[in-house]
Amino acid sequence: MSEPTKLDREGIFRVAPLEFGITEGKDGSLSVGIAINFQILAQLGDNGQWIDWGAYNVVCEGTFYIVDRTGLVQEKQVKSLIAALGWTGALEQFADPAWVPLKCQINVKRESYNNADRYRAAWINPWDFKPSKMYGVEPARLAALKTRLDADLCAIARGETLPKAVAPPGPPPDMDDATLPF
User: Fold this and answer.
1) Spatial distance between the Cα atoms of 109 and 151, rounded to a whole number of angstroms
2) Under 8 Å between Cβ of 84 and 107
3) Helices in 115-179 by DSSP H: which ranges?
4) Which helix (H) or strand (E) segment is 83 a member of?
5) 110-149 pLDDT, tens per residue?
6) By C-alpha distance, which of 136, 124, 101 is closest to 14?
7) β-pair partners for 34
8) Which helix (H) or strand (E) holds 74?
9) Angstrom distances, CA of residue 111 to CA of 114, 117, 138, 176
């Protein structure tokens, strides 16, 4: 098989973890990350269908920080790795080359590093995760937000200035909480 090609675009991909390991922060950082190299299997198309990449040898890497620079465990990231990879939470799994993590999805973003662009996994989800263009906003909630906000948002888009918000009336200046009748 030919040498793998690095991914050259953003998007949502189904992947198989190829290699993984533990990385620690430098220069006083207490961070701990899980570094993973992924084989790209499919890309989510604009029509919501998966496009097979099986004929290509494309890889992408990502580092998922489970402990931040200050030493604080990143619960959301840990839970995403557990759900996506079938990880038990035991660090030694990432040091065991015999462990086979589950196939999953990654969200790839472009980042600039040393004056060059690269594409890296920014988030990880289970294989069957259903990405949404609306980012979790249900249609009924979107309708309610639209009713409440559209007039103001469209006015701003037209270059109009909105009136200043008026603070609700408080007690008269000569009254304090102890003298209020309610």
Assistant:
1) 33
2) no
3) 139-157
4) helix 75-85
5) 999 888 999 999 999 999 998 765 455 666 777 777 788 7
6) 124
7) 22, 64
8) none
9) 10, 6, 30, 55
**C-alpha torsion 101→105→110→115, nearest 10:** 10
* CA torsion, ordered 135, 138, 140, 146, to nearest 10 deg: 0
CA distance 160 to 148: 18
Q: Are 93 and 99 in contact (CB under 8 A)?
A: yes
Residue 57 has phi, psi (to 5 degrees) of: -110, 80
Phi/psi of residue 180, each to 5°? -70, 140
Three-state secondary structure call for residue 50: strand
d(CA 170, CA 140): 35
pTM confidence score: 0.71
Name the phi and psi angles at 98, rounded to 5: -85, -20
* Alpha-carbon torsion (117, 119, 120, 123), positive or negative: positive
Phi and psi torsions of 171, nearest 5°: -70, 155
d(CA 98, CA 94): 10
pLDDT in tens, 23-35: 999 988 899 999 9
| Beta-bridge mates of residue 121 | 108
